[in-house]
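Standup, Tuesday
Yesterday: got the pipeline producing structure tokens again.
Today: sanity-check two examples.
Blockers: none.

Example 1:
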Amino acid sequence: MFKLLGNKRLFIMLIGLVTFIALMGFTLGPRMGLTWPEKFVRDTVGFVQGVFYKPAAYIAGFFEDVRDMKEVYAENERLKKTVAQYVRESAEYHRIKNENIDYMNMLRFTEAQKKRFDYDYRPANVLSVNQDPNNHTLVIDLGAEEGVRMNMSVTSVEGMVGVISHVGNFTSTVKLLTTLDPQDAKRQQIAATASNKDTFGIIESYDKKTKMLKMTRIPQDDKIKEGDLIISSGNGGVIPRGMIIGTVEKVETGEFGLTKTATIKPSASFQDWKTLLVVFTPEEPKG
């Protein structure tokens, strides 16, 4: 024992080991708070993080604000161009409309003839959708009580969706354009034209694989081309004039080489609808 005490180095190491073990036990044991060294380390780390993090976050936020500002500026430029185009087209529309009214008055059109193409678009909510590919329909919350009739056209903001195939008192069923089938004896064909030229054809089928419409019976000398907007012509008295159908994707020679056939990409997306528009056309006077 005295020899052990006489060795100062060994004695100091022994005291240090005992102290270390005691501190470890105190540190690992249950306690309510942190020791002052732990508090010091935590506060120091928090201070250093604050010094570096806040300026970094500020710089990152600054560059993000600059990027958002550029996007807002670009969007404003696009909106300005759109508004300018709308103003020009609106002015041209009113000019043409007034000219048509003058011509109608000169030719002594009746009031019914003048209002023939004054359509009323009434919003309807989609209640349910039948995804059966052979009977793709949906149900809307407008019916006979609101004046809905058979074969009325239904459109979205993008383009024509289908026609009313069944009318209840408070709901109606819409048969979609995706059900067009040349083998169906009760199919609803659509007389169509290009919006910017004197074109004629029939929208008669929908290909479920390519998700494209087929326009047939186009005269061989017709100047229809890729990119043309196809709308309903109003011929036939069922589908009103001016319903947007889609755009031409491809034009080919018909089966016997006497006509052309066009592949039409529908403007309507045929999915995720919440609200549609039922097209109310003026009723013909009963004679």
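Example 2:
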Amino acid sequence: MTAESGAWRKGKRVAIIGAGPTGVSAAIAFLKQGFDVRLFEKNPEPQPLGGAVLLSVPVLAVLREYGIDVGPSFGSKTGVQFRNNKGKVRAELPFNPNIEKSFGIPGWHYGVLRKSAFGKMMNILPDNVIVPDHGFSHYEETGDEVIAHFENGAAVTADILVGADGVRSKVSEQAFGDPGLFHVGLRVWLAWCDHIEGLDRTYGAISHGRKIQASWFPMLHDGKPGFEWWIVEPVTEDQPVPENPEAYLRNLLKDFADPLPRFPDHTNFESQIFPWNIYNRPLLKSWSKGRVVCVGDAVHPVSPYAAYGMGMGIEDGYFLAREFKNASLEDAGAVTAAFNRFEAERVDYVNHQVEFARELGQRFHHAPAPVAMIRDFVFDNTSVLGKLIQKDYLADQEKMSLALTELHV
């Protein structure tokens, strides 16, 4: 298949770089708006990384709009508690009944294996959309068009170019310069396992010791019950992965309350665990330039405390395409106006979520010992943590959710 096989009409051409969840979401959303889409992937086939993921109700509503069945077999509805390492509940995320009623989806968070959710997204893409083995090289703008060049020598002419090529995005770097990536001093171990008999599936817990977070949630993988669990630890950028991850993680979990020390017993350490060093970049005030726009980790990599990286990228793709409804991409003014509307809705909202996640990571993993002792005393004995989460995490998401009236039932 050539890079421009199938329909490729001037004024309708959307080239997307990167076939991860963000790029696939954008492709689906633009196709639903009637555009011609090519999704360029550097690998022979898309490769979703990591284990399980928590998706929030507005993300499920977007996937439902795409035509994906988000019924009971899609994911596991779960309550969310913040705990200390001894099991004491510090805060609980409430469900908003207005959001549940508006979307017709109960709860707020759903646990699902990343591969399963991504597979359902891939299943609704037409066969001719993904162009594999096309590593992006650079682009050039020629007035009313943009030409994407690839490492294999191929080139494609489009009306707009969408960079969804991850934290080390070449599209973003060309558009906005050196991203200034920095290691946040954290490593996440993402893991999952099959169901454990007797373990409550109605809630999950984010548990904190002095320096380590260890957490678990119920999830579904291909409709079957299981659990996702993960550990967040402070590390330096050059700190190697331990040679024996199982022994290392068992040691980290030994001071945490049940059920956390049990999860390694049910996990295949060859195939069900994935270490991930966390990088961020300075926040951007604009994600577009000319006929180019970037979405997802290409402009806002998310620390684990947002629990929201895949979901935020899926939302980006939906919001971006929504602003191009009935637009001719030949019209430079229409392109700029659509980018501006997209950024007005997303940039400040996303930047706030990213900054809050980064701040929590610093508070929980890099506080000096005396400060950490005071932090733990306050969180154990007051409602401060719950109020912080409600104000800085939930409030903006609830406002965004209630504004998505076209997705309400």
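Quick observation on example 2: The first strand starts at residue 13 and ends at 17. The CA atoms of residues 13 and 158 lie 5 Å apart.
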